[in-house]
Design brief:
Length: about 450
Amino acid sequence: MQLWQGRFESPLDAQVNDFNASIRIDKRMVEEDIGGSIAHATMLGKCGIISMQDSELIVKTLSEMAQEIQNGTLAIDESAEDIHTFCEAELTRRIGDVGKRLHTARSRNDQVAVDFRLYTRKRIDEIADNLRQLVQVIIQRAEDSAEMIMPGYTHLQRAQPITMGHQLMAYAEMFLRDLSRLEDCKKRLNVSPLGSCALAGTTYPTDRFMTAGMLGFASPCANSIDGVSDRDFAIECASDIAMIMMHLSRFSEEIILWCSFEFKYVELSDSYSTGSSIMPQKKNPDIAELVRGKTGRAYGNLMALLTMMKGIPLAYNKDMQEDKEALFDSLDTVQACLTVFAPMLETLRFLPDNMRNAASGGFINATDCADYLTGEKGVPFRTAYKITGELVAYCIRNRKTLETLSPDEYRAFSNDFDEGIYAAVDLMNCLEKRTSYGGTSVASVRAQIENAKARLSNTEGL
């Protein structure tokens, strides 16, 4: 049955019906569809648009349907055009003409819009919970590794000494921003389109504030045309998800590098690795690679939504049926990735000796050598920079490090060097001197951890 069949004299072509139908996608919104209908039916009764007796029977029957769907005794009929058609047809099958009164003063346009917002809001809360769990794991692992020296990189070249805890807290900052973005998205999403009807509102004396409150919305939308045609919330949510996936992908890339024999800074648990069908020595970071690969899906879904919306006039157009499949895929993808990423990180084993060895071999204390000449001896920075560069070149030619040069070798480049240079280029000293806010000293990293814990606790209400 189609809800719109009265206007048409011949049945819809079977192939067209299949092409037009959306129930395979939107059936997951059945809880939201029934919830929206219960609020609408309650309002219709309270406002005297239908009798209280009919309102109460509709609400009672819809509640029974919701319970039966939840426990599996009512199956969704996938031959229906969409979930809205299925629910109304099932209601009418059970209570006859009374069920037909439910659709008074609403349209499928505002019905699908409210369902989509309710469902997206619910999934945002779930993803926020997943993100919080991940940030908690990151914080714990940062605490574990706050004193583990490793090279910090720019251009994937060893740059300056940092700790693994400092590196991990950079990702905590990214995911905390993601939580903030989801919170903002939820605020803008949380207005009710119910009662906008097809586009122009209704002649019935409805109470849109009542239904908005019943469904947990902050308010009804202020313009009925915008109410049914707005999909900004879906695009914004897809954008936030794309950002989360980008951060997960960057983190995955680092884990993949760190697992390689060329780095060997960490080792993944066997539970989050796979092997090779032909090379018995292999231990592959497939989970991290899949997360990195799935990021492209989230980007594609965002572009699909933007492209779908860019050229359609107000108000509702059938193009907008494509909104749910794209966003649902992004929601499913990011949730699946977050669900496996947190325990993968939690069970990962650090290899601090390898990190320290790498830090010792890359001249990542060269800046500190130049700073020593400038800060302790008053040498102009550019002169100090040149002297240090010549020292590094000398070390490379002679397979030495700044720590292993003799005093005479130092003085061959500048008479300003004395025994103080060895403390200046000691890796732990280099690290601990970086006490600026947000820097890599152990104390600074521990302060970042406490700051992140406090900020994370403030997201609990999301």
